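Subject: Interface between my chains keeps coming out wrong

I've been trying for a while to get a sensible model of this assembly. When I model each chain on its own everything looks fine, but I need the whole thing in one frame so I can look at the contacts. Pasting all components below, labels as-is. Any help appreciated, I'm running out of ideas.
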Amino acid sequence: MIAVHRFLRSPEGLAGAGLLLIFAILALSAPFFFPRDPLSIAGPALIGPFQDWSLPLGTDRLGRDVLAGILHGARTSLTVGIAAAAAAIAFGAIVGTLAGFAGGLMDEALMRITEAFQTVPGFLLALAFVSVVGPSLAAVVIAIALAAWTGPARVARAEVLSIRERDYVASARVAGMHPLAIAFREVLPNALPPVLALSSVIVAQAILIEAALSFLGLGDPNRVTWGGMIAEGRAVLRSAPYLSIFPGIALVLTVLGVYLAGEATVEASAVRKGIA
Amino acid sequence: MSRHLLSVTDLAKRFSRGGHTLAALEGVSLSIDRGETLALVGPSGSGKSTLGRAILRLLQPDAGSISFEGRDLLTLRGRELRKTRSRLQMVFQDPHAAFNPRATVARVIGDPLRIHGVVSRRDRSSAIAALLERVGLSPKLQSRSIHEISGGQRQRVAIARAIATKPSLIVLDEAVSALDVSIRRDILTLLADLQRRENIGYLFISHDLGAVRAVAHRVAIMDAGKIVETGRAEDVIAAPQSATGKALVAAAPRLLHYAPTEEAR
Amino acid sequence: MRKLAIRGLGVTYRRDAEEITALTGVDLDLEDGERLAIIGESGSGKSTLARAICGLLPAGTQIVGSIDWPSLRRAPVNGRDVGYVFQDPSASLDPVMTIGKQIAEVARTHRGATWQQSFALAEELAGRVRLPDPASILKAFPHQLSGGQKQRIAIAAAIAGKPGLLIADEATSALDTIVQAEIMALVKQLVAEDGMSLLFISHDIALASQIADRIAVFRDGRLIEVGPAESLLTAPRTPYTRLLLDAHLGLDTTKPWHSGGGAASARAGPP
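Reply #2:
Try treating it as a single job with all components included. I did that and got this:
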């Protein structure tokens, strides 16, 4: 409770949470305000923003509604960001726990694999994966998770290495608990907090990678994405820069919101620990 | 040999740290009978905790053998070892560190019941309640988090967990050292009472000869990884033979100017 | 002369929006050169008292009442007026600084000595706390020493500023009995040599009986009994003090107190 209190008293936390809340509401209300497919044609092409109040942010080269695109794009960005981060953290935490708890050969093997993944730039890995598997929402989520799981794995392993020497792990062994049960019931839950502290960075990174993949035309073709909208606007950048600027601003604000809220959460819980 | 509950023969363990090796255990032999308390006493770093953990198979000795209930403990692996653990339990020094910080009292005591299938799932809650009552706690504590109860209550919960599977031997590693003096006495009484009723053997690891004198039948004194003296508790404390034994007896805190009350006598 | 006069001291912590009262209405005096033991179990407030005297309580703690230093005309300075020895010697030493520097730093800060003088003093102090081979031990780092050696270093650092009051807060609880006895003898000797007052905080009334002129018993944040060691130990006025005395398990109590295990049933032998 006190952590929530502290969070709400920090201006960064409030700003971040406010931004995220706005985008979450936009994303959730998209089908309500714009029940039509955002990829369908809504009016004449290239109407500028604030000219026609039925199309407040104007239309693109094919006459698609920009505001509808941004609202529906928020759905894609947030879905992909959260799903990819959740997958990366879950997979990384499991690998890190197994490596740290088992030790020996298992640890060596798993950590060498982790390092192999780390040496390849995350974005290239995601790019390669999507171009092989083909663009779809699931493929993009898996590709991003593939690029991001190594951080959580290393943090989880370091934490597990210290926890496995604690008395309560010895106590679980004395009780006759199976090693896998010890790893996942006793050790993993206590190793999670520092791993979860990475989540804001990973969500923000995932949103950016998704945008970059879409920008390169490797996003799900049946969904509006901010990256795809920016790429679309590129062709008419001089005559209609707003087509790239609006989704760009949405992207920046979302990532900023995730960072600020994440930082404030970590700080609020850290202060709490310091006192106790 | 096998008529003893536990016989340890020529146990050795070395740790290598920063290039040089340290003999934590060297040719250690001892035995414990059913219903007997053997106290293992020594200064810190003497290897007494290492010995306790080796007997529980929490660390693997380099040489020697351990026979428990007539079976060679060191050859047991995996499933068989986990099964044997129901007979061989431990209570740790720090009741705060010995529990998963997220656990509830019911989970702490329920774990061994579940793992070894002592009672059916339906009867587990009442079995936990019965164990709590056995160690002098209210069954209402079940739903409490392990954080919310006091140090003395936590050590009682640790004892309840240890006796849940009806073990024949419990290693008590400095089990009362971290407790308040008024609580320590109650816990020692509880341990003695459980021993009398269930014929449990104790390995009572301590640096405190006062507590040892109160509960132990026999004493083994350790120093630098070796057992330097063994004997009946009252004999060793009255007339220690080894240098370590003499130092321990001389160092035990004495209450000056004190005349005990009639009840304490 | 009176060293300390504590009047109506009350301490309340705030933790997670909850108020926890650690001390209530404590009146206590400490004379120059006196050895006073503070005895209590966990939650008695004994460590809070020591920390209040040194101003070591966390920010936001509410303190009422007064702690006066009649012999000082200024506010007391930790290190120069009070030396503090904590329970855990490794927590009170800086792990990345050599032993010699840690002791010398206290001397330099509070005695205004040069580094060279301070190091000479550190070596002298290491000898006084009876560390073997002071010159080489001063070049070591804390992790290279045993628990007993670290506590000797912590004591040397605590007395380096020549304080008039030494506070030993459960200073021997983390040590085994043999080392504990050595540290007790050392503290006793240093206090006598330097004419310091001693505030000896412990849960162990037997330890206190070996060192204290007076004993104060705390329970649940209150001072429940204080008096000269001999009269408190032989004729305690409160049932709680009596309980603490009876709970002492020594080699000197007439007989083990329970009939179950112990020497009595050893005669019969295990069944």
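Reply #3:
Confirming on my end. The beta strands of chain B are 6-17, 20-32, 37-41, 63-68, 71-72, 88-91, 169-173, 201-206, 218-223, 226-232.
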